[in-house]
Write a structure and sequence with these properties.
- The chain is an alpha+beta fold.
- About 20% of the residues lie in helices and about 35% in strands.
- The strands form two sheets. The chain has a six-stranded antiparallel β-sheet with strand order 1-6-5-2-3-4. A two-stranded antiparallel sheet has the order 7-8.
- Strand 3 and strand 4 form a beta hairpin.
- The N and C termini lie far apart (about 70 Å).
Protein backbone atom coordinates (compact mmCIF):
# COMPACT_ATOMS: atom_id res chain seq x y z
CA UNK A 1 0.00 0.00 0.00
CA UNK A 2 1.19 3.51 -0.78
CA UNK A 3 2.15 4.97 2.61
CA UNK A 4 0.20 8.12 1.77
CA UNK A 5 -3.08 6.17 1.41
CA UNK A 6 -5.56 5.29 4.13
CA UNK A 7 -8.87 3.56 4.32
CA UNK A 8 -11.78 5.91 4.03
CA UNK A 9 -12.82 5.91 7.69
CA UNK A 10 -13.54 9.65 7.86
CA UNK A 11 -16.50 11.37 6.21
CA UNK A 12 -15.89 11.46 2.48
CA UNK A 13 -14.15 14.62 1.37
CA UNK A 14 -14.34 15.40 -2.32
CA UNK A 15 -11.17 15.07 -4.34
CA UNK A 16 -9.43 18.39 -4.69
CA UNK A 17 -7.16 20.88 -2.99
CA UNK A 18 -7.77 22.16 0.53
CA UNK A 19 -6.26 24.31 3.24
CA UNK A 20 -5.62 22.15 6.29
CA UNK A 21 -4.40 22.72 9.83
CA UNK A 22 -1.89 20.44 11.54
CA UNK A 23 -3.45 19.15 14.76
CA UNK A 24 -0.11 18.36 16.41
CA UNK A 25 -0.82 14.62 16.44
CA UNK A 26 2.21 12.88 14.95
CA UNK A 27 3.00 9.17 14.94
CA UNK A 28 6.31 7.54 14.03
CA UNK A 29 6.54 3.99 12.68
CA UNK A 30 8.22 1.51 10.38
CA UNK A 31 6.94 0.02 7.15
CA UNK A 32 6.97 -3.74 6.52
CA UNK A 33 10.38 -3.26 4.90
CA UNK A 34 11.66 -1.27 7.94
CA UNK A 35 11.38 2.10 6.20
CA UNK A 36 10.81 5.02 8.56
CA UNK A 37 7.42 6.72 8.31
CA UNK A 38 5.63 9.63 9.93
CA UNK A 39 1.85 10.04 10.11
CA UNK A 40 0.59 13.61 10.47
CA UNK A 41 -3.01 14.30 11.45
CA UNK A 42 -4.64 17.25 9.66
CA UNK A 43 -7.96 19.05 10.09
CA UNK A 44 -9.85 20.00 6.93
CA UNK A 45 -12.98 21.94 7.94
CA UNK A 46 -13.59 19.68 10.95
CA UNK A 47 -12.68 16.44 9.16
CA UNK A 48 -9.58 14.71 10.53
CA UNK A 49 -7.36 13.05 7.94
CA UNK A 50 -3.85 11.62 8.03
CA UNK A 51 -0.97 12.11 5.64
CA UNK A 52 1.71 9.41 5.67
CA UNK A 53 5.29 10.40 4.88
CA UNK A 54 7.92 7.83 3.91
CA UNK A 55 11.60 8.58 4.57
CA UNK A 56 13.32 5.94 2.45
CA UNK A 57 15.13 6.38 -0.86
CA UNK A 58 13.98 9.11 -3.19
CA UNK A 59 10.99 9.94 -0.95
CA UNK A 60 13.28 11.26 1.79
CA UNK A 61 13.82 14.78 0.45
CA UNK A 62 10.14 15.20 -0.47
CA UNK A 63 8.96 14.02 2.94
CA UNK A 64 11.41 16.32 4.74
CA UNK A 65 10.06 19.25 2.68
CA UNK A 66 6.47 18.28 3.58
CA UNK A 67 7.32 17.92 7.27
CA UNK A 68 9.03 21.32 7.13
CA UNK A 69 5.94 22.84 5.48
CA UNK A 70 3.99 21.57 8.49
CA UNK A 71 6.24 23.60 10.81
CA UNK A 72 9.02 21.18 11.75
CA UNK A 73 12.27 23.07 12.30
CA UNK A 74 14.58 20.26 13.40
CA UNK A 75 13.04 19.15 16.70
CA UNK A 76 14.51 15.84 17.84
CA UNK A 77 11.77 14.24 19.92
CA UNK A 78 8.18 13.28 19.15
CA UNK A 79 6.51 15.63 21.65
CA UNK A 80 8.51 18.62 20.38
CA UNK A 81 7.61 17.80 16.77
CA UNK A 82 3.90 17.68 17.65
CA UNK A 83 4.12 21.00 19.49
CA UNK A 84 6.06 22.61 16.63
CA UNK A 85 3.58 21.68 13.92
CA UNK A 86 0.36 22.25 15.90
CA UNK A 87 -1.72 24.98 14.26
CA UNK A 88 0.39 25.30 11.10
CA UNK A 89 -1.60 25.77 7.89
CA UNK A 90 -0.71 23.66 4.87
CA UNK A 91 -2.16 23.01 1.43
CA UNK A 92 -3.20 19.41 0.74
CA UNK A 93 -4.56 17.40 -2.16
CA UNK A 94 -7.14 14.63 -1.64
CA UNK A 95 -7.46 11.69 -4.04
CA UNK A 96 -9.22 8.34 -3.82
CA UNK A 97 -7.69 5.15 -5.18
CA UNK A 98 -8.66 1.50 -5.31
CA UNK A 99 -6.30 -0.80 -3.42
CA UNK A 100 -7.03 -4.49 -2.87
CA UNK A 101 -10.72 -3.93 -3.50
CA UNK A 102 -11.06 -1.03 -1.04
CA UNK A 103 -11.28 2.69 -1.63
CA UNK A 104 -8.39 4.51 -0.01
CA UNK A 105 -8.02 8.22 0.60
CA UNK A 106 -4.62 9.68 -0.27
CA UNK A 107 -3.70 12.92 1.51
CA UNK A 108 -0.76 14.73 -0.08
CA UNK A 109 0.83 17.67 1.74
CA UNK A 110 2.29 20.26 -0.60
CA UNK A 111 5.60 21.74 0.42
CA UNK A 112 4.55 25.28 -0.51
CA UNK A 113 1.81 27.07 1.44
CA UNK A 114 0.02 28.33 -1.70
CA UNK A 115 -0.21 24.89 -3.29
CA UNK A 116 1.88 22.69 -5.51
CA UNK A 117 4.96 24.36 -6.97
CA UNK A 118 7.61 22.79 -9.11
CA UNK A 119 10.72 24.96 -9.01
CA UNK A 120 12.72 25.28 -12.19
CA UNK A 121 16.36 24.27 -12.38
CA UNK A 122 16.98 27.49 -14.30
CA UNK A 123 14.87 30.47 -13.31
CA UNK A 124 14.45 33.56 -15.48
CA UNK A 125 16.00 36.84 -14.39
CA UNK A 126 13.71 39.83 -13.90
CA UNK A 127 14.87 41.15 -17.28
CA UNK A 128 14.06 37.82 -18.96
CA UNK A 129 10.64 37.70 -17.27
CA UNK A 130 9.87 41.24 -18.47
CA UNK A 131 10.91 40.45 -22.06
CA UNK A 132 8.96 37.17 -22.01
CA UNK A 133 5.76 38.82 -20.73
CA UNK A 134 6.08 41.65 -23.24
CA UNK A 135 6.56 39.16 -26.09
CA UNK A 136 3.56 36.99 -25.18
CA UNK A 137 1.40 40.07 -24.66
CA UNK A 138 2.15 40.90 -28.32
CA UNK A 139 1.29 37.36 -29.34
CA UNK A 140 4.78 36.32 -30.39
CA UNK A 141 5.87 32.71 -30.14
CA UNK A 142 8.10 31.77 -27.19
CA UNK A 143 11.76 32.14 -28.08
CA UNK A 144 11.02 34.39 -31.05
CA UNK A 145 13.10 37.50 -31.53
CA UNK A 146 11.26 40.79 -31.02
CA UNK A 147 9.25 41.55 -34.13
CA UNK A 148 9.84 44.44 -36.45
CA UNK A 149 11.25 45.08 -39.89
CA UNK A 150 14.81 45.59 -38.66
CA UNK A 151 14.94 42.19 -36.97
CA UNK A 152 13.57 40.02 -39.76
CA UNK A 153 14.36 41.92 -42.92
CA UNK A 154 10.68 41.89 -43.95
CA UNK A 155 8.70 45.00 -44.84
CA UNK A 156 6.32 46.25 -42.14
CA UNK A 157 3.30 44.91 -44.08
CA UNK A 158 4.84 41.51 -44.90
CA UNK A 159 1.81 39.59 -43.62
CA UNK A 160 -0.87 41.59 -45.43
CA UNK A 161 -2.49 40.02 -48.52
CA UNK A 162 -1.35 41.45 -51.83
CA UNK A 163 -3.19 41.19 -55.15
CA UNK A 164 -1.72 38.75 -57.66
CA UNK A 165 -1.05 39.83 -61.24
CA UNK A 166 -3.40 37.24 -62.63
CA UNK A 167 -6.22 39.07 -60.90
CA UNK A 168 -7.52 35.83 -59.45
CA UNK A 169 -7.41 36.63 -55.74
CA UNK A 170 -4.88 37.26 -53.06
CA UNK A 171 -1.69 35.58 -51.99
CA UNK A 172 -0.09 35.85 -48.58
CA UNK A 173 3.62 36.67 -48.29
CA UNK A 174 4.14 36.94 -52.06
CA UNK A 175 4.83 40.20 -53.86
CA UNK A 176 2.49 40.95 -56.73
CA UNK A 177 3.38 39.31 -60.05
CA UNK A 178 5.33 36.31 -58.77
Amino acid sequence: MNPNEQENTTPRIQEGFYDATCTGVVDFGLSESDGEQVAIQLDIDGNLVTSYLAFAGEALQHSVAKLTACGWTGQRDAAAVGAAIKGHKVRVGIQYRQFQGKTKMEVNIFDQPAGPRKPFKREMSETQVGAFLQRIARGAAPGAAPSGPSNRGYPANWDEPTPTRSGGGFSLNKPAGR
